[in-house]
Structure formats: structure tokens, C-alpha cells
Amino acid sequence: MGSSLVYHAGALGDFLTTLPAMGVWRRLHEKDAIVLLGRTDLAELAPQGLFDEVWDARSSRFAPLFSGPVERATSLGVRLAAFQSALLFSSAPSALPASLRGLGVGEILRQDPFPADRIPAVDYHLSLFRGLTLTAEDRVPRVRRGGGRIEVPANTAALHPGSGDRRKNWPLAKFHALAEKLRGAGLTVRWVLGPAEEDAALPPGERTWRNADLRDLAAALSACRLYVGNDSGVSHLAAACGCLTVALFGATDAVVWGPRGPCVRVVASPGGMLEALSVETVFSECWSSLRQ
Description:
Blueprint: E1 3-8, H1 12-28, E2 33-38, H2 40-43, E3 53-56, H3 75-81, E4 85-89, H4 96-102, E5 107-111, H5 121-126, E6 156-160, H6 172-184, E7 188-193, E8 208-210, H7 214-223, E9 226-229, H8 233-240, E10 245-249, H9 254-257, E11 264-268, H10 279-291
Parallel strand pairs: 1-2, 1-4, 2-3, 4-5, 6-7, 6-9, 7-8, 9-10, 10-11
């Protein structure tokens, strides 16, 4: 039995788009123990059995990996020299590949974290494995969905009005108007709020899921009837949970960054201006999706 290292330290949406590629790596190294060097909170979303162990990439003990050669005689060098292979989602200037090669890691597959061409991010990561026959199911990110401590009423629509960049956000007033239309259609509305939405001004009495643990949020989204959000990691999470997802895109490229899942509708705004996307258009997409 060998051992293999996988490195990914990016954000939620970026991590989710790599899951199919990580799943292929798992199958190619089915007899190996696979260690993820990445974010521990995101690793909890990974399908059961994808990783055997998780190391926190934010820990200072791994800093020498990114700054130059690692001495084999150090405790870090001894741990890393035990790997026979590595899958690295890291930029070309990173010292990580050279550090691992210097420690004797023989098989290293590296890819820039973001595609340079106009190709869906999931397919870009899977392009690492040219020549393999992959099914449509192999190309869909899936997350672990068990448990959960959030109560989800029947017929719930989850609305996430934020993202990591305010330029990607549909106006909050339009989210408010959409919420009223969804209630009028018989749905219960819950707002998903994280650190990026701390200043979101919601009407009094609105019920929120604020700063939820990602495993809890995944379980809650799995139980929702509908999710509506911007180009964000949470939208990718909703899609990976199998929730009916309506994702709103403006200036960012939906071809590359649109969430992938069995029940996803991407709504692109006219001319890339989210302000021009009407409440009626978004509600129509929601309603037609719900009726299918």
C-alpha cells in the first residue's frame, strides 16, 4: 500500500469543481492512502472515502513547502518523502512541486487552479486525465450530505444574496421582491448569510441561516425545494447537493463558472449587467423549474 498527496487550498466553489478530478485520482490510486493538504472545513464536504487523512494547509508547519527546498532529515521532510505520488492544484510559480520532487516524490501531476481557456471548470480539471472514459455522472460534483442541525420547513426556498465579490451580486432589493413572489407561490423563504453578507439589510422578521457550518448547510440545502443565488461557492454547494438551483450570472462567465448538477438553471443577465436582470425573469425561471 502506497500513499498519495492531494493539494488544494482554494475557496469553496473552486474546491467543489475539483471533486470529480479528485474522484478519478482516487480510482487511479485505489490501493493508496490519500492525504489532502488543504482546508479542513471543505474536506468535510468530500464524499466518504475520497481522503484517508486531511492536513491543514493553513498550518505554519507546512510553510517550508512553499518557500524552497525541504530538508529530508526534518520531521516535515520525513513525512512528505513517504509519498509516492501527488496531485497538485497550484500555480506554476509555486515551489511546491519542486519541494516534493526534491524529497523523492516520483509521480507529480500539477494543474493551475483556474482555466486559462473558456472551458467549464469541472471539465478543465478532468482534462488532467485525457484518454480515460468518463460518464456524465463522473463529471458532476457530489458532496456528503448526511446529518445536519438546521431545521428546514417543507417547501423551503433558500436565497443567498451575496458572493465573494459585490460586483457579482444581484441587487438585494430584487432578492427581497423575489422572496415575496416565492411566498406568494406557497414557498417558505430562508436566507443564507455568511461573512460576506454581514451588512445585508433584510426586512424585519426574516428567518436566516447565518454563518452555518458547511456540513449543516449542505444538509439543509439538500432538503430545500429551491435555491437561488449569485455566482458563489454556496451556489456550487447547492448544485452539488442535488438541490434545484437557479444561479444568477452577470459579468462573470457562466460557461466556465456555472454550477454543475442535475437540477441547475443558469440565468445570465442582459449585457452582463445584473441590475438589468428583472425579478419577473428570475421568478419565471424558478417557477418553470419547480413545475418540471
